[in-house]
Amino acid sequence: MPGMDGSIVGRCRFGLKTYSVLIFKDTKYVDLCSQICSQFKELNSCEMEMTYAIGNH
Asked: Which of 54, 57, 52 lies closest to 11, judged by CA?
């Protein structure tokens, strides 16, 4: 989902928690992993898989 500033809103689910994060064109993968892992204490960034969906696809 595009944000007002051209960012993309990512939604991360782990266990019973959901976390939304803004992803900008200059967002680095390592920073994104770090931000997500800080919200899910049990998640190890080495075990994470990121996928994406476009629109209704």
From this structure: 52
